[in-house]
Amino acid sequence: MSKKGFNLAANFLISSPNINGSGNFIINCRSPLHFLSVFRYLGTESVANCNSREKLKLELGNINELDDALSLYETMAETRPLPSVNQFNQLLTRVVNLKQYPVAIRLFKDVCRIGVSVDEYTMTIAINSYCLSHRVDFGFSVLALFFKRCFVPNSVTFNTLLKGLFREDRITEAQELFRKIVREGLCDLDVVTYGTVIDGLCKAGNTAVAIELLRVMEKGECKPNSYIYTMIIDCLCKNRMIDSALKLFDEMSEKSITPDVFTYSALIHGFCDLNRWKEVKMLLKEMMDCKRYPNVVTYNTIVDALCKEGLVDEAEDVLQIMMLKNVIPDEFSYNSLMDGYCLQGRTDEARNVFDSMASKNIVLDVQSYNILINGYCRKMKIDEAMDLFREMPNRGLKPNVVTYNSLLNGLFRGDRCSCALKLFDELQAAGLKPDFYTYSHLLDGLCANGHIERALLLLNELEQRGEHRRINYYSVIIDGLCKAKKLDKARAIFNQLPSKGLERNVVTYNILIKGCCQSGLLEEAKDLLLKMKQESLLPNRVTFNCIVQGNLKRGKYEDAAEFLEEMVSKGFSPDSSTFALMLDLLGTKEQEPTIFKMIQKFAPTTLKPKL
Length: 611
Prior knowledge:
Elements: H1 3-12, H2 53-60, H3 66-78, H4 85-97, H5 101-113, H6 120-132, H7 136-148, H8 155-167, H9 171-184, H10 191-203, H11 207-219, H12 226-238, H13 242-254, H14 261-273, H15 277-289, H16 296-308, H17 312-324, H18 331-343, H19 347-359, H20 366-378, H21 382-391, H22 401-413, H23 417-429, H24 436-448, H25 452-465, H26 471-483, H27 487-496, H28 506-518, H29 522-534, H30 541-553, H31 557-569, H32 576-586, H33 593-602
Helix pairs in contact: 1-7, 3-4, 4-5, 4-6, 5-6, 6-7, 6-8, 7-8, 8-9, 8-10, 10-11, 10-12, 11-12, 12-13, 12-14, 13-14, 14-15, 14-16, 16-17, 16-18, 17-18, 18-19, 18-20, 19-20, 20-21, 20-22, 21-22, 22-23, 22-24, 24-25, 24-26, 25-26, 26-27, 26-28, 27-28, 28-29, 28-30, 29-30, 30-31, 30-32, ...
C-alpha cells in the first residue's frame, strides 16, 4: 500500500462491522436474506442449463422487486463457475435502485464471503449503500478495503463519500475531506466533485463558501458550467437574495455560459416567492426568446406560488396554458392546485381535482391524500378525511406521520378524543415515529378536551425519555392549566423552565399573563411584563391586549389607558375584542369618562363617526 493510501485509510477508518463478518448494523436474523446461509455450497456441482449466461443476463434486466433480486442472487451464488463480478455488480445496483440499501450491504458482504473478486465498482456500490443508509462512517471502513486490495479509489468513490457526509450534515468533515483530496491529489477533480461540494454547502446554507469555491473553479482547469451556476443561483433565490442571484445570472452571459431551463426556473421561483410577478413575466419572455422553453418544473413553480397566494383560479389558467404548450401537468401540479383550494376552504373543488387525477393517468401519491385529508380536517369534515385515510392501503399507499398528524388535529378539534387516542395507537403500531407536531396535537387535544392530568403524564413521559424537549410543549400545558383555573401548577411549570434548559419566549409569557389577568391577578401580570422585558423579550400585540382587557374587566380604567398609550407607542393597535369590551362598558350604568376618551383616541377611523 502506498504511504498516501495508508494515511487516508488511517484517518478515515472508523469502528464498524467486519466486511467479511457480521455486525450490529445491517440486518437481523429475520431479514429476507436469512435463508442464504442454509443453501451455501460445499463442493456443489454446477447447476444445469437453467443457469446459462444468456438467461442470467436476461434475468438481471428483469429485476423489478426485491424477491426477484434475492432469488436470482441465490441462483448466482450456487452457479459454478461463479458469474463475473460485473454481473454481481449489476445485481447490487438493481437492489440499490429499489432503495433496499441494507439488503445491498448484506449482499455485498456475502459476495465477499463466497469468494467473488470484488472490484472498485463493487466497493463503491457498498459505500453508496452505507451512505444512503446514513452510515457514512461504515462507508469509510469500505474505503480501507480499496487499499487492502491494492485498488485506487476514483472521483466517483470520493464523490459518494462527500455526498454521504453532507447528507448527514457533517459539513466540516465534508470540507476537510475535500481539502484532503485537493491537497494530496487523491483523485482527479471533475465538475461532479465540485458540484457535490457546492450542492452540499448550498443546502447547508453556506452560500458564501459555495461562491468562493465557484471562484476557485474559475481560476483552475475545471471550469464551472451552467449546472454549477444554477445550484448557487437556486440557493440564493431560496434565501431571498434575489439581487445576488441576478448578478450571478448576468455573469453567466459575460462568460459565455448559456443558462438552461433550470437556471431560469430557479430565478422564476425566487421572484414568485417575492410576489414580483412583473419580473416573472419578463423572465418567461426572455426564456422563449432564447428558445429555452418552460418545462413542467417552471410551470409548477408558478402554479404553486399562485396557489399559496390564494390565486387558485389564476393557477388553473396556468395549467391550461401548460397543456396548450404540450407540457403535461404532473402530480406536483395537481397537488399544488388541490392545496390551493384547501387553503381557501374550497374542499369540494379540491376533491374534483383529486378525482380527476386518475382519469388523467396521474398516480395519486401519499402527498395527494395528505393534502385533501388536511383540507377536510381544517373544514371539520372528519368523516370524509377518515374515509380517505382508510382508502389509502387499498391503493397500495402507506399513511405517513403527516397523515396521522392532520387526523389527530381534526379529531381533537372535533371533540373526538377517544378516536384520536386510538389513532395515535395505530400510528405507533404501524412503526411510525411520532414527531414534534404529533406530540403538540396530543398535548393540545388532551388539554382542550379536559384531560389535563393525562397531558401532564404524557409530558412527564417525554421528559423521562429525554425526547422532544421543546418550549412549545410546555406552553401548551401552561395554557391548559390556566384555562382549567390551575394557576398554581401553571406558575410552577413556568418557573421550572430555566432549570430544564429551556428559554421562555413571548408566547409562554403571554399565556401566563393572560391567565393572571383572567384570575384578577393584575399586579402579578405587571410583574411578568417587567420580567419579560428584563429577559430581552419584547411584548407584542397579544401581550398588551391581554393586560388592557384584564384591567378593563377589573375596573382599572386609568391603568388600561396607560397600557393603551404604551401599546400604540410600540406600533401596536387594540384588537377587535378589546374594542368590543370598551363598547360594552359604555353601555353600563357606571359609565366612565375615561372609557369614552379611550375609544375616541384609539378607535379606528371607521368607527369614530358612529360614536
